[in-house]
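Entry type: protein chain
Record version: 2
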Amino acid sequence: MTGLTTILLVLALLFGGAGVVASAAQDALPNDLLYPVKILSEDVRVQLAGDAETRVALSLEFANRRVGEIGSLTARGNPVPAEVVQRLETEVETALTAAVEIEATSQARALEIIRAMLAQQLQVVSQVQDRVPESAMPAITHTQELLAKRLALIEMAINDPHTLREWTREWIPEWKTTPLRPTDLPKPTIVLPTVTIPPRPTDLPKPTIVLPTVTRPPHPTDWVRPTLPAPPGLTPPAPTPNWTPPAPPGFTPPVPTPNWTPPAPPGLTPPVPTPNRTQGPPR
């Protein structure tokens, strides 16, 4: 679908209404402007179908539309797009898959309806083959082979319903039948990278610490005091024990008096001390 076609479809849905556009698109042929709307409306109806019997009926109805589109295109001398044949194959497979889900009591009737519809479609395509252009022959031949194979399968399924179930499991992709559950998905193989754990500080080798030899300088008190020689002609004085310096000239030092008591001031008679006097109680 081109960009211009998409814009026209959006405008038609906005201003014309979805229901009116979908109704008008039912007669559209491939390469028409409204053909994508026709296909979209069909997909929505199949998705909204509530049971398997309804999906079978809708899929067969839409498969008949594809056969009619093939006949209309060949009658006009137009080539049949490969998407139309692919769409027909998908709708037939959808009908067969839905028939497997129908209960056994109603499954036989559904298979009879599918056989009648496929036989009718094969007959229509065979009639069209005589008047199609040479460019459309590959699509017509492929459609005939598809319908003939599915019709033969339905013939066997009517006699043995288990045949149809085995065929859907073998030939139809899993995503077209039952979606995979999370437990059915393949488990990925997780390869963890090799992680090298660095050594802890306690695991590291302990270094050998060599302390330098420190020579303490001598203390000033430990130094040897040098003996200076006397100058020439100088005789140092000899030390005198208990030497007392001489008194200055004219000075007579006082002679110390043992137990000296200073004199009392004039008019004052000092008290006479009483030995061992005991003070009495206060009055």
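Comment: Residues 13-17, 174-185 have pLDDT under 50 and may be disordered.
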